[in-house]
Here is the input.
Amino acid sequence: MKLVIFGLSISSSWGNGHATLWRGLCRALIRRGHRVVFFERDVPYYAANRDLWELPGGQLVLYAGWDDALPAARRHLADADVAMVTSYQVDALAATALALDSRAAVKAFYDLDTPVTLDALSGGREVAYVGPRGLRDFDLVLSYTGGRALRELRTRLGARRVAPLYGHVDPAVHRAVPPQDAFRADLSYLGTYAADRQAALEELFVRPARAMPAARFAIGGAMYPQDFPWTENIFFVEHLPPALHPTFFASGRLTLNVTRRAMAEMGWCPSGRLFEAAACGTPLLSDAWEGLEGFFTPGEEILIARTAADTVAALELSDAELARVARAARERTLAEHTSERRAEELERLLDAALSADSVDETAFGGSGDAGGSGDAVGASYPTSSNEGYPGVDGGAAERDGVGEKDGEALAMEA
Here is the structure.
């Protein structure tokens, strides 16, 4: 199968969660015998922070402007099986028009930032990557987020066939490695600064740091302001490239996940950080949000914090207790949340879209709330392989969140 993808970025992970997700998924698809061509606008921000220059086994097309991309895009689409456009693609509307006019058997849209998309619609703001016809012309709409987001993509944007494709981790990249003293911490947090989760970060990370002055806390990420409430025992590491994420995770006794506002409110939107840290064998501590139990079992595979006291209590657990949680999370992740697993799911979804003669516009299981078993609109879902994805509802592209600058992509954030 040949897939031609018009995406935000795969070449730079700087403040961009899409990149790591695409790298893992493309590697898995290529291993499985598919051909992948990825079109990315060569914007200065990512060009200055590029950490991938080619797609091994596939093709990365960096272009200066849409007119420059057209000849190659038309050539690749001429024999493509799948034409896919993603959220926050710089030329999404032009790419959509080209993809829909192509001979590709399946025209797909992948919203890695569904909570941001729907939040913008609710606020009457423009969604630059969705045209006036919404998503109704696509054969398949994929969402990084499940739950009620699937129904809202249908009712608000006219999507006919909707299914989640959650975050994932490539265990060849994120794996157990020796710790490094420079990153050593009792509690670590890896994520780009985001104003809309600052309150939660202060409650679950900064307040515990103040309450435990003898403990060491570490933050890794980009765009933190000078007026961030640093304490003497909070150590900061500027943006870490994906290659150093495993070392950062391995150097922490426990790592914290804090979910972006739009993701937390929507639910069923797991940050890619959860899967990455779990694959590295690091115990997980997370804020609470609807659907979390569909990915990890609280108390067994993940610890939950709602207050600073919960964080302190987690840090007071024995090494043996934390190791037990970490082992369980890693086993679950390697069984259900790898890039290979998502590639398999994508294959099934594309095959189903390819073979469908028509779409049942009323085939929306249950009330549309998270957990119903038939929430993939117009799609036939293999529920037996989705035990970790109740109701094929789901997560969000956060990778680590909704994006850098306010209003930017959920999956973009690193």
About this structure: The first helix runs from residue 17 to 31. Residues 357-408 have pLDDT under 50 and may be disordered. The longest strand covers residues 35-41.
